[in-house]
From TrEMBL:
Keywords: Disulfide bond, Glycoprotein, Glycosidase, Hydrolase, Lipid metabolism, Lysosome, Signal. It comes from Tetraodon nigroviridis. Residues 1-19 form the signal peptide. InterPro entries: Aldolase_TIM, GH, Glyco_hydro_27, Glyco_hydro_27/36_CS. This is Alpha-galactosidase. One of its GO terms (cellular component) is membrane.
């Protein structure tokens, strides 16, 4: 078992590489995304409350406003795969499934905007989405214009069914197409995730193209999945950490806090670690039915403040000794107290070290304070 401790350090470091010039994601994106919790459930006859439909997103938008999520900083309501009709319309445009989205995406966007929130949508750089719906290959300009006309605010662009030698070109072409629409659309890419098996990704180009990007495997609702993502991040940090900063972020995937697979200590671990890594905070859970402890955790203002620090530096491993390590995260705000983030104990997690508390504790006078890690493989 390797114990990784994280340290928050108050100092300034050099800037990251040049970011995508669309003025978005100056701090990590915060919102809700359907995939890990609701997957590709399209059976609205048998499961109307949980199928991928306009009703689901409207309800989540309502809850985000009423239950303090918007106030905490979560602003995007994001559709993932399985929303479209199986075929484009006669004009070659994507269209929402008419049964599950009878009002269409434009009406849904208007509804979400009326709540003071923003709408995200999903598409794919290849010929098909990962679930087999129409992809954007050959339609980048058309799809970008469609999303802009609908009032979409974020595009998650997946990488299935695409020739890997054309992957980078496809992602760059969609970035240019989005920019040409004149609408500010945050661009979430999976470019490096699909390119790693072929070659080392060009993170300078990725940062100039995307607002955040997935690097490693999909998260699932399990502690082993989270540890695997953290281990990958530590192994490749020298490559990926320098690219992170205002306008562009490494995305370790969704927060699965409030679901079924994690103990509360493990949920605290994921929240603390994602905050330290300056990761997008995109929840995938059921906000209509979430336990109070998980809700309190996800809305904790001290942890969110670390994640949203304007300096925007990702935590990174600085040393290993005797099976232990240390990480640092620079912060810009001197009012952020590193030791307010977490205390740690092994009492409830067996061989895995977990936080006993991720919430305010007396502030230390030291400029450096140990903050939580987890037991990484």
């Amino acid at each position: 078992m390797h114990l990784y401790l994280f340290i928050l350090v108050l100092f300034s470091v050099g800037p990251a590489a040049v970011a995508l010039d669309n003025g978005l994601a100056l701090t990590p994106t915060m919102g809700w995304l359907h995939w890990e919790r609701f997957m590709c459930n399209t059976d609205c006859d048998r499961d109307p409350d949980n199928c991928i439909s306009e009703r689901l997103y409207m309800q989540m938008a309502d809850v985000m406003v009423k239950e303090g999520w918007k106030e905490a900083g979560y602003e995007y309501v994001c559709i993932d795969d399985c929303w479209p009709s199986p075929r484009r319309n006669i004009f070659g445009r994507l269209q929402a499934d008419p049964k599950r989205f009878p009002g269409g995406i434009k009406k849904l966007a208007e509804y979400v905007h009326s709540r003071g929130l923003k709408l995200g949508i999903y598409a794919d750089v290849g010929s098909l989405t990962c679930a087999g719906y129409p992809g954007s290959l050959g339609y980048y300009d058309t799809d970008a214009q469609t999303f802009a006309e609908w009032g979409v605010d974020l595009l998650k662009f997946d990488g299935c069914y695409m020739n890997l030698t054309m992957l980078g070109e496809g992602y760059m072409n969609m970035s240019k197409a989005l920019n040409k629409t004149g609408r500010s659309i945050l661009y979430s890419c999976e470019w490096p995730l699909y390119e790693w098996p072929l070659k080392k990704p060009n993170y300078t180009a990725i940062r100039e193209t995307c607002n955040h990007w997935r690097n490693s495997q999909d998260v699932s609702d399990s502690w082993s999945s989270i540890k695997s993502i953290l281990a990958w991040t530590a192994a490749y940090q020298d490559t990926i950490v320098p690219s992170a900063g205002p306008g562009g972020w490494n995305d370790p995937d969704m927060l699965v806090i409030g679901n079924f697979g994690l103990s509360h200590d493990q949920q605290e671990s994921q929240m603390a670690l994602w905050a330290i890594m300056a990761a997008p905070l995109l929840m995938s859970n059921d906000l209509r039915d979430i336990c109070p402890r998980s809700k309190k955790l996800l809305q904790n203002r001290h942890v969110i403040a670390i994640n949203q620090d304007p300096l925007g530096k990702q935590g990174f491993l600085t040393a290993k000794a005797g099976g232990a390590g240390a990480q640092v995260t620079p912060t810009k705000r001197p009012t952020l107290k590193p030791d307010r983030l977490c205390r740690w104990t092994a009492s409830t997690c067996g061989r895995d070290l977990c936080p006993s508390s991720a919430w305010p504790s007396p502030s230390s006078t030291n400029r450096r304070s140990a903050v939580p890690g987890a037991s990484w493989p």
